Amino acid sequence: MMKSEFELEPGLSHYGCIVDLLSRDGQLKEANKVVKEMPMKPNVMVWGMWKDVERVRKLMKKKKVAKIPAYSYASTTI
Description:
It is a single chain. By secondary structure, this protein is mainly alpha-helical. It has one domain. The protein is 60% helix and 0% strand. The protein is built from four helices and no strands. The protein starts with a helix and ends in a 16-residue tail after the last helix. The mean pLDDT is 80. This is Pentatricopeptide repeat. One of its GO terms (molecular function) is RNA binding. InterPro entries: PPR_At4g14850-like_plant, PPR_rpt, TPR-like_helical_dom_sf. Keywords: Repeat.
């Protein structure tokens, strides 16, 4: 889409953003698919996001925090 509509060749940072967004939304299989189908080799920027997502997900599970679908934040009752 970027190339056909805007004549821009997507770069590593573009793919990294997509992976980050999908991962944060819990769409880990789709994010992994994007990484595998990237036309370039993923670097630490792309793989580093996976570690951040994993850390946040584990912390949320430990604290019993649930993300409300379609919201970019989670709330808790203390």
